[in-house]
Amino acid sequence: xxxxxxxxxxxxxxxxxxxxxxxxxxxxxxxxxxxxxxxxxxxxxxxxxxxxxxxxxxxxxxxxxxxxxxxxxxxxxxxxxxxxxxxxxxxxxxxxxxxxxxxxxxxxxxxxxxxxxxxxxxxxxxxxxxxxxxxxxxxxxxxxxxxxxxxxxxxxxxxxxxxxxxxxxxxxxxxxxxxxxxxxxxxxxxxxxxxxxxxxxxxxxxxxxxxxxxxxxxxxxxxxxxxxxxxxxxxxxxxxxxxxxxxxxxxxxxxxxxxxxxxxxxxxxxxxxxxxxxxxxxxxxxxxxxxxxxxxxxxxxxxxxxxxxxxxxxxxxxxxxxxxxxx
Length: 327
What we know:
11 helices; Alpha-Beta Plaits; four-stranded antiparallel β-sheet; 61% helix
């Protein structure tokens, strides 16, 4: 299951691969009609590859930090730019098309991988396309290429900063769709005041996914995001009307359950634990999850309740406490 943002990104990438495939097929037809037979081979061979990449990405999301479809697409596009014969009238230097490459690479891949692809393409242009060009033409092209890399990098960096600021302002964690920790602090003040006024209980569940850091380190950020998103989906499906879900920290989800005693939280805890075991797939071994119920104590201040929540997270303790929910 994919988040809406990931779904839209997959569709955009698939549309991009499709557009490249259509463009290459149009070039192949143009070369054929213009009798440029020596230039037909590469666009003809690459067209079905880009169509296949479009279909692949349309149907499935990548589970890797560096999308294999993007890696293959950029490699094939680089081969085309470096080895396609110069046969078009009015466009006799294919390397000028390479100026769009940095923007495409930064859109499809993380910053480090896109920089590697851009560097190798630039070296290829210098040795395979520009070796017989005047020195000033080489300097101009390299300057434009580096400038576009800088522009793309600044744009990506600025977009990430703006997204983080927006997520912080609206109080939503983009990986889970839950409210974030900042919003939790605001809600706790309101819920504690309400609990005191109405004399009704307030409890919560801390859901700690202990394998999240291991998945992130060994399998990459994409699988880690997928893991915690699926866990959040299961937690959300177990929430009742009036319950609220939060991303407490990197590996911990929090379910705030107003008007619920500790006994009610224990019932929800057991049900949620078994649902996680049955539905959540963990790629590094059997699922290791801890679910801790807490209830607001009589006369407890908000700051004290928050401190107790923080100290109740097993992964923050010096010694791991065994949490056996199977009894």
